[in-house]
Hints:
By secondary structure, the chain is mainly beta. It is built from no helices and eleven strands.
Amino acid sequence: QVQLVESGGGLVQAGGSLRLSCAASGRPFSSYAMGWFRQAPGKEREVVAAISGSGGATYYADSVKGRFTISRDNAKNTVYLQMNSLKPEDTAVYYCAAEEIPYTSMIRFGPSEYDYWGQGTQVTVSS
Length: 127
């Protein structure tokens, strides 16, 4: 089992940047595919970005391509989400999630594919 703790959320003006971090504890970190999701009030949770256990494969939602970057440091048991050129529509609670995978090259996309979730961190982008 893995425990996840997010940090780095906050209030930022449109066009600004934030970096979210998610620290994991438990089994070897590379044995988990990781994802960042977000949920705005009244909306369903949606995938923002995902990364394979090795970090060699990444996925981005169309709405964040070119603005957000997911990365991981397996030595530090941490996954990051660098968010640039933020827009008011990026406002949401952001969650990191983990799913144990048999091969480090594997990646997971949808919320239902992840078993472990952090508590979430609020990101608010003002116009």
